[in-house]
Amino acid sequence: MKIQDKINAYLNTAISTTVVMVLFGLFFALLPEFALNLLRLLLAAGFLLAGFSMIMSRVYSRFVRLFSSNFLGAFLIVIGLVFLFYPGILSLIPMTIGLVIVISAISRIGYTMELKNVSKSAYITSIITNLLSLTAGVAIIVYPFDASAIALSLIGFIMIGYGLSDLINIIVLKKHVHDFTDRYNLVSKFSGSKKSETNPDNIEEAEIVDPKKK
Question: How far apart are alpha carbons 15 and 12 in whole angstroms?
């Protein structure tokens, strides 16, 4: 796969992730109470189903493996029951969302730095949107959000802001994918020529002069 195709594939995936983040943000912001209960029930159902299916499974025939499967299944069931009967566990979700936002913003820094040598205006725009994304992620992690509907609504608005700023950043990066590719090819070509110049196979053998012939 060419470097241009790799960059485009990465940015297309980033667009999909950002759109999903914005949709979740809208869901959390507009219907926080419903979203909170639905999220808790979905997590509880997911863990309970995974736990019961693991225990009921007869894939493992050996006792040790069966015991391990039952133990893990019971553990998943316990987690499902915790989500079902202890809503406070959802307070960990904001931190998880914040970490996802921070990691996503950091992953774009490399491309943002490359814009410095391509387009100054695009570089400044990308820097600003990256800083906004990082600020949103850090705010969610640092601020002690609880599992209330108001907190989830606020997180939803932050996610929308992050998604929009990140989408702008990705669009700016996509507009300069060709420039990235040209710069990468130029650097690769220069590195290749430097290596060929220093390749021992390309160095002509020096003539050995016998001192006695002088």
Answer: 5
At 2 the pLDDT is: 66
What's the domain count of the chain? 1
Q: Which two tokens stand for residue 94?
A: 């904001």
CB atoms within 10 A of CB 199: 9
Q: Examine residue 136 and state whether it is found in any structural domain, yes or no.
A: yes
Residue 201 belongs to a domain? no
Q: Which domain holds residue 122?
A: 3-183
DSSP state, 116?
Answer: T
Most confident of 70-79, 109-118, 135-144, 178-187: 135-144
199, part of any domain:
no
Taking CA 171 as the corner, what is the angle to CA 166 and CA 177, rounded to the nearest 5 degrees?
A: 125
Residue 62 pLDDT: 45
